Amino acid sequence: MSIEAAEAAVASSGQRVRDLKAEGAAKEAVEAAVLELQAAKATLTASVEAALASCAEGTPEYDVLKAKLPPAAKPKGKEKKKDDAPQNDRAAAKAARAAQRGAKAEAKAATKDEAVLGPNLSQAEMDSAEFGNLFIQSTHAATRAWTGVKELVPSLAGQQVWVRARVATSRKQGKALCFLQLRQSMHTAQAVVFAKEGELVGFAATLPRESVVDVFGEVTLPAEAVASCSQSAVELQVRRLYCVSRAMPELPLQLEDAARSDEQLAADPSLTRVNQDVRLNHRVIDLRTAANQGIFRLQSAVCEHFRGFLLSQGFTEIHSPKMIGTASEGGADVFRVEYFGRDAYLAQSPQLYKQMALMADLDRVFEVAPVFRSENSLTHRHGTIFFHLCECFRHMTEFVGLDMEMTFFEHYHEVLDMLDRTFCAVFDGLNQSHQEELAAARFTRRCEQRLFTPSALDSETDERARARIRERLDARGPESLAEHADTEDMGTEDEKLLGEIVAELHGQDYYIIDKFPAAVRPFYTMPDPTDPRWCAPLSRPRSRAPGPRPSPRRGLAARSNSYDIFIRGEEVTSGAQRVHDPQMLLDCAKEKGVDLSPIYSYVDSFKYGAMPHAGGGIGLERVVMLFLGLPNIRKSSMFPRDPKRLNP
Amino acid sequence: MSIEAAEAAVASSGQRVRDLKAEGAAKEAVEAAVLELQAAKATLTASVEAALASCAEGTPEYDVLKAKLPPAAKPKGKEKKKDDAPQNDRAAAKAARAAQRGAKAEAKAATKDEAVLGPNLSQAEMDSAEFGNLFIQSTHAATRAWTGVKELVPSLAGQQVWVRARVATSRKQGKALCFLQLRQSMHTAQAVVFAKEGELVGFAATLPRESVVDVFGEVTLPAEAVASCSQSAVELQVRRLYCVSRAMPELPLQLEDAARSDEQLAADPSLTRVNQDVRLNHRVIDLRTAANQGIFRLQSAVCEHFRGFLLSQGFTEIHSPKMIGTASEGGADVFRVEYFGRDAYLAQSPQLYKQMALMADLDRVFEVAPVFRSENSLTHRHGTIFFHLCECFRHMTEFVGLDMEMTFFEHYHEVLDMLDRTFCAVFDGLNQSHQEELAAARFTRRCEQRLFTPSALDSETDERARARIRERLDARGPESLAEHADTEDMGTEDEKLLGEIVAELHGQDYYIIDKFPAAVRPFYTMPDPTDPRWCAPLSRPRSRAPGPRPSPRRGLAARSNSYDIFIRGEEVTSGAQRVHDPQMLLDCAKEKGVDLSPIYSYVDSFKYGAMPHAGGGIGLERVVMLFLGLPNIRKSSMFPRDPKRLNP
């Protein structure tokens, strides 16, 4: 390794150690990083010493080099930890030992390696060699036709194809044979390297896992199916083989460990488990498992179907600002930003802006955008050994909101029905067009599949379905639900009970609850005037602002025109009819003790003609997590954020 | 007005004055707000005094009320300003005078008003009255069929329809006739209220502009076309009329002023102009103009076609974190966030994360998300009197990035072609399906339409088109382009010249420039090895990291595999092939003096097998602005942000 590279490696490892400590990461993670740092320092020492050996003492170069020698790497605690060290420790220790052999030895080894590692080729040179290391720098226009691993099927038998893929595994068998498992996302195929002479087989055997290769070969039909590969009915007989990117020989985590299912782990306690923090620290590797390939392609599909349905219904997509001048909607749990000498805040939701967009005559709007919550609360829901490190924090501090808001004519159920149909469109889309991703995503954690089947949706997503749930709940009697004060929200237990009833009645894990108490909803929620506890009209409405106003105190006991949508007993959407009368908005805010003066633009937007409207916000990661039955919200966030995690 | 409401109005107006001052808003804007505040205080005084009059002196209530009296409102400078005051001033002064008449007088007036303003109705009561003020609180399920203003066409003649719309204007003609212009987004229709007896006409005449009404009436065919309305071939004979939301009588800006075209304003200097700051301060009203209705529906359509095309090409949508642990990509111009006792930063682009997503085998990804730039630079491009207030700041601090990144096989032009086809899909989509919005958006500012016609795109979007541009540029001779040092970027003048050539040759204002100097691109940009100033190979590549490395210094003079896309001579997209070799990345960063240790996760992501890849980022607001030829980036941002503006 060059001295520059070794120096950079030391700097990078040092930074990682500092970051992990700052994040309060698990002890083992910090220790592993410290070992990596020590290994990097050893490599640097070796590189510098080798350079010093070929440099006359006393020259300026010699002094410059000598100054680069790092402080002695002290592998303290390494031996003590050996037995219970995770794989990272072993890798680091091995790297450290290898580095300590010294650069001279390494130089010798490199000369020996070169024969096996093959020549370095430019794109111009590749046709002259049947194997080698190919660096692609766009020197030649694209001319080849490429075949995906997924497309390797028996009908291609006899054809010669180019495939670019990762080497999942490389198994040499004797001098003339090497099997490569090629992988592209969720698909794998077996490539057979067979050559009685030459170095093609030797070259194939040196390829570290996860390296990227270009393979030219003939598709053949094996006598027996290749059980270990998704493309089990074919093999690829390799004629030419180029390494496009050679992976480091030691991976921070093994993909086969990360890919195991709960069942496999339960059946064999000796198997290596990869905990959530290690996964997130090396997220790019972790994301390569088939389950994660499925999860994040499904996440994309959720957004696609959400938007596709709403666009078909005449919605306009908006983009509201994320930096706002005032800590709206309460002010707690909001992140502060330094904004040219004053304070700005990160938007906790696009709520006020999507309503303002409606008042600006956009009529039906949606937004897909990040939302920010500075919440620091601890959870008690998940306490298992594997998730305790990250599940200390119940909420992510940043997630993706799928928000919608629309005007309606007579009743906010027009909007609730739209939300309901949106969910159905999303579920139908996933079930109909993403079977492969669903199977991959559900492999590691199986959960009941009693939800979102198109047939169930066809018959059960209308007003009648909601009525039937109410009947069944009534039939269980009042004791089945916890007693609530008029101003209390539902508890988790009640939510789960309702989930069970829905599953019984409808064979699916999706339901809506309507009419929450005004006390547990935001100030801009429209009270339900059909509730007798609602006292209207209070006063003769002012001519400019007709309509009844709520009575302070008693109004809070009343229901409001608000709703939540649940999957598997957990909320994924919250929404309501909003107050569109500016006077009533002031009254409601006063009742809740909310100061509206910082958001006068919002209040003003209702003063010049306001359409009745309602809407809701959907948590993207929650929908993906609950649809798939994943155990942790971080599994459905590509690079999750919580109070302790800001990296990667 | 109730005392509570008056107090809230004072608080809100006071906050607005403080905000405007903090933002360094124009003097006139601040003065107008001060007058509003004074008017609000006068109203409060009047309300309190009225209450005091009906309250015995010496009682606790009396003292509480008395304490509410605000400090005397001193309308200093009001008279002096009268002549050149904007409409806001006149409104505020009028409101102040009205308020000062006192609450007793107002109460009398209200009783008189009630006859004209009509009864207040609940949804249950509306069938019993042919007009009135209807407050919609979702007490009754939706039962009516509603017709859009756009749908009012001659084929409906003779039918009775329900329409909900805004009252754009109300013109009473005698006792028995009133014309209402109804508006829904970009569409208007004339409603005729004719009644020889009863108060229907009087009620219609009291409706302030922008109020929302429900109209039930019969579609008829007028003898002459209604030239003032988009639905000129029909009229609506009003049978029943309900005010769903009554607007304040004085608007902060008049829609007909805000809607005028540049030509109209140039032809008649006496017309009221609405400057950009007033528009943005009252954005919800400003957005109701037909031009803005068109602009923001087109903005939505740009996103729709961008995503639709990329999804059709196998892309996956990702969501990368916006709060990041380190100030990546340079560190300047980055916003700092307080993050649980330490610092986080707002992402300036999803660049590093979209590359990491590719390294995680997602292969082709895109993201539509806000990006944040703490840029404080002043512009000199636009100095006109109408835009000087907001155009002091060249850049918005928050905008929407349409980012894409994909692996390629042999040459980064595979990716550039994908970007090119993406733009064509967007342009085609807009031109083919959004003619109405285009016409509305282009009304206020006409610009040449020599771009993005499907026929031009069909023949001119391939490699040949790019070659022809180069020929034409060569034909003009070297003197036509400014002399550049090897390490300099193109200047604005050169960009415009190229724009002219493209327009001459291809009849459109869209072009791509390829191969920028490495010196003006970020450290992760792949150098162009075909440039003779590029010195490769420098050293024997290490077996783990094959490939040539750039020579420090001389490498910066070389071209890089990077490109920009332009519309009307301004850049809308920047992109490049990225360095996918970790050793080369370290070398390039070192050459640029970039410290990679804080972003080790990014560097590490290339160590375990990396596919060659390229991508680009598109500024949504810039595409909309330049496609439509708008004069100001704030015109294509719904709620723009710059160093002085954080509201609304």
UniProtKB/TrEMBL annotation, chains A, B:
Q: Top enzyme class of this protein?
A: ligase
- What InterPro entries does the database record attribute to this sequence? Aa-tRNA-synt_II, aa-tRNA-synth_II, aa-tRNA-synth_II/BPL/LPL, Asp-tRNA_synthase_2, Asp/Asn-tRNA-synth_IIb, NA-bd_OB-fold, NA-bd_OB_tRNA, WHEP-TRS_dom
SMART domains, alphabetized: WHEP-TRS
* Reactions catalysed, as given in the entry: tRNA(Asp) + L-aspartate + ATP = L-aspartyl-tRNA(Asp) + AMP + diphosphate
GO terms (BP aspect): aspartyl-tRNA aminoacylation
Q: One GO CC annotation, please? A: aminoacyl-tRNA synthetase multienzyme complex
Reported EC number(s) for this entry are: 6.1.1.12
Gene Ontology MF term list: aspartate-tRNA ligase activity; ATP binding; RNA binding
Q: Transmembrane stretches, by residue range?
A: none
The compartments listed are: Cytoplasm
Q: Where is the Aminoacyl-transfer RNA synthetases class-II family profile domain?
A: 296-640
Output compositional bias ranges, type Low complexity.
1-13, 93-102, 536-546
UniProt keyword annotations, A-Z: Aminoacyl-tRNA synthetase, ATP-binding, Cytoplasm, Ligase, Nucleotide-binding, Protein biosynthesis
Domain WHEP-TRS per the UniProt entry, residue ranges: 2-58
Renumbered residue ranges of the record's region Disordered: 1-23, 66-110, 470-493, 531-556
Which family is annotated?
A: Belongs to the class-II aminoacyl-tRNA synthetase family. Type 2 subfamily.
Query: What is the designated name of this protein?
Result: aspartate--tRNA ligase
What is the organism of origin for this protein?
A: Emiliania huxleyi (strain CCMP1516)
